[in-house]
Known about the structure:
The structure holds two protein chains of two kinds.
Chain A: H1 7-25, H2 27-47, H3 51-83, H4 86-91, H5 97-118, H6 120-127, H7 134-158, H8 165-192, H9 198-228
Helix pairs in contact in A: 1-5, 2-3, 3-7, 3-8, 5-7, 5-9, 7-8, 7-9, 8-9
Chain B: E1 2-11, E2 14-24, E3 29-33, H1 40-48, E4 55-60, E5 63-64, H2 69-74, E6 76-79, H3 91-101, H4 108-117, H5 133-141, H6 143-146, E7 154-158, H7 166-181, E8 185-189, E9 201-204
Parallel strand pairs in B: 3-8, 3-9, 6-7, 7-8
Antiparallel strand pairs in B: 1-2, 1-4, 4-5
Amino acid sequence: xxxxxxxxxxxxxxxxxxxxxxxxxxxxxxxxxxxxxxxxxxxxxxxxxxxxxxxxxxxxxxxxxxxxxxxxxxxxxxxxxxxxxxxxxxxxxxxxxxxxxxxxxxxxxxxxxxxxxxxxxxxxxxxxxxxxxxxxxxxxxxxxxxxxxxxxxxxxxxxxxxxxxxxxxxxxxxxxxxxxxxxxxxxxxxxxxxxxxxxxxxxxxxxxxxxxxxxxxxxxxxxxxxxxx
Amino acid sequence: xxxxxxxxxxxxxxxxxxxxxxxxxxxxxxxxxxxxxxxxxxxxxxxxxxxxxxxxxxxxxxxxxxxxxxxxxxxxxxxxxxxxxxxxxxxxxxxxxxxxxxxxxxxxxxxxxxxxxxxxxxxxxxxxxxxxxxxxxxxxxxxxxxxxxxxxxxxxxxxxxxxxxxxxxxxxxxxxxxxxxxxxxxxxxxxxxxxxxxxxxxxxxxxxxx
Lengths: 229, 210
């Protein structure tokens, strides 16, 4: 049989695996969505019945809700595979761990982003976001989500095997998510004042590309340390 | 031939092996024996590349194995007590995705045969979360069959027989015998030697001077 590796096949198998695991139990997906709904509802109710006040902060609330909702589920992305020995199997396979982690972060990105995009109309109504923002919001969530999952994999690898990793992880990764928050909100804000959002969007893409390059290498390095303990 | 030269392996701050050399011949089964904590798993994990060597080299014939980890990965199947099965996938899906993850293109027919080789074909649609420990171990051991289709020459097995029943042990013996006939090398950590009806070399780690 052929021993040529089709990277597309390997990539595909990881996406399939993560989708099967996550959409079969659905618990992670539901928790992300419901947590985001909770955060946004609390913000909106806390602001009170003033539309102008909400208009000032709605973009930031949306992004903060997005980040806070994703963080709790990040820890499990690698912890589960570490506990059941899947990571041992991937390290003793002919495929480089870096490539596997890249596939894994992209799979995770799709898993969190698809339900969020489906429930986007609901958030738009809740936060009274203007309609001309929707395509830009769509794009910036897509790109920002990829950054968050790439950074999240690093954090997840860093807290592998650590007790209380769920508390440590947000503290470690939020500094790296701050640029995503700033430029993600920036995209929406520039449109609100009728300016071009391209600059902010490019910076968002730039940070995502940086994370795309460094994340697999850093997390593979960290996982090798965690496994060897 | 697998040569281990001047190996020093640390686990945490404890030195498990110090300047230790040995070799494992091809087409041979080596059963690694020793009391708990003697370093059976540490040795297997080190050879698999999961624990970095403090000092020393491991050579497969004349190639240092960790210089080309990809090639070593092709050559190797490692199974330990953690199995590497996802509990939300079925027995069949676990095997299929495992083989795809290694870049292997295995047909449905061969996957069925692999599951039959450890007599777990009747459970192929059962989720791992509903399997007993013995079934889980058999699901993990079904991977071994796939090494006959590809160029795998080493099996590193850490206590594979712990949860198996009598019939599965006979099937496991058959798999090993077939692998040895195909010029494979097996390193097997195990406590009881009665289970195996083949010729093996014994490596007793208790007798090492450390």
